[in-house]
């Protein structure tokens, strides 16, 4: 993998932590063993939960991220692992990866890579599906000034990401110049089909009850906005209380209400045609 940031040792170390999340550039999925068959997201979840770990990867660097190979006798695929050694459950931020995936499912987005909670080496961890056919990440695309082949489709995908990130208070993909870092956007993966996948949400789910950059919320997928109107705190509690605390759930609900209000005001001002769009199916 080409090193994206040169000349700065601390940036190099940061990039090394996330290199595990950029798939085919590191090593291929073509390994001996059971053939890889197409799976639905539900089947991917089941695979992540139950498949045997046949290669535990290299943990000698001490990084909390590493890559393992799983095999269930029918399929072989890799997973990105983030574990926690903290005895304090509130410090186990790896759970936010699972929370983001569960929320993605509740909104019917299909943008967040499947992630489940299980143990490895007697440590609780998030097992996240290793995304196939990655062309680059958004950090690399911006650095190389690569333009997407379909600008309209790309814009719609990115607006969906913006709404989702404001909802979950994901500071790591914050678009504000005051927060911008050279290593941001390495957790937004772009496949060869220019489809976006989101990974690594360990810095999300803050307790702010305000939107960080409401001015960046220009448009919204029609189906996503409809789901946001329906996913109340009670619904989120049922799906997420295993991974988030009461204060985080309260903040999530506050931001949801602000997003719904924000787009209601924009629609009243500019009209539905200017604000809402229909994102092509991603299944």
Topology:
Layout: H1 9-18, H2 41-50, E1 52-55, E2 65-71, E3 76-83, H3 95-107, E4 115-120, E5 123-129, E6 134-137, H4 138-144, H5 151-168, E7 188-191, E8 196-198, E9 220-221, H6 222-230, H7 233-240, H8 246-270, H9 272-275, E10 276-277
Parallel strand pairs: 9-10
Antiparallel strand pairs: 1-2, 2-3, 3-5, 4-5, 6-7, 7-8
Helix pairs in contact: 5-8, 7-8
Describe the 3D structure.
The protein is α+β, with helices and mostly antiparallel strands. The protein has nine helices and ten strands. The strands form three sheets. It has a five-stranded antiparallel beta sheet, with helices on both faces. The chain has a three-stranded antiparallel beta sheet with strand order 6-7-8. A two-stranded parallel ribbon has the order 9-10. It starts with 8 loop residues before the first helix and ends in a 6-residue tail after the last strand. The protein has helices at residues 9-18, 41-50, 95-107, 138-144, 151-168, 222-230, 233-240, 246-270, 272-275, and strands at 52-55, 65-71, 76-83, 115-120, 123-129, 134-137, 188-191, 196-198, 220-221, 276-277.
């Amino acid at each position: 993998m080409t090193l994206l940031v040169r000349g700065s040792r601390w940036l190099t170390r940061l990039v090394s932590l996330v290199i595990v999340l950029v798939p085919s550039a590191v090593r291929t999925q073509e390994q001996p063993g059971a053939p890889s068959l197409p799976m639905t997201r539900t089947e991917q979840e089941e695979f992540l939960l139950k498949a045997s770990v046949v290669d535990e990867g290299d943990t000698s660097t001490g990084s909390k991220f590493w890559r393992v190979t799983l095999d269930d006798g029918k399929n072989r695929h890799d997973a990105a692992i983030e574990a926690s050694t903290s005895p304090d459950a509130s410090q186990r931020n790896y759970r936010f990866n699972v929370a983001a995936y569960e929320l993605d499912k509740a909104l019917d987005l299909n943008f967040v890579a499947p992630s489940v909670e299980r143990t490895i080496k007697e440590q609780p961890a998030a097992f996240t599906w290793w995304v196939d056919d990655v062309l680059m990440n958004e950090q690399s695309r911006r650095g190389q000034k690569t333009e997407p082949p379909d600008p309209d489709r790309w814009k719609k995908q990115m607006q969906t990401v913006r709404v989702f990130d404001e909802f979950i208070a994901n500071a790591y993909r914050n678009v504000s110049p005051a927060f911008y870092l050279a290593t941001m956007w390495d957790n937004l993966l772009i496949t060869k089909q220019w489809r976006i996948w989101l990974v690594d949400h360990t810095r999300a789910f803050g307790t702010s009850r305000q939107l960080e950059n409401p001015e960046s919320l220009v448009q919204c997928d029609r189906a996503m906005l409809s789901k946001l109107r329906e996913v109340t705190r009670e619904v989120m509690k049922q799906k997420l209380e295993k991974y988030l605390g009461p204060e985080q759930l309260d903040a999530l609900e506050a931001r949801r209400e602000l997003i719904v209000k924000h787009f209601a005001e924009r629609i009243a001002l500019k009209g539905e045609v200017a604000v809402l769009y229909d994102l092509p199916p991603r299944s």
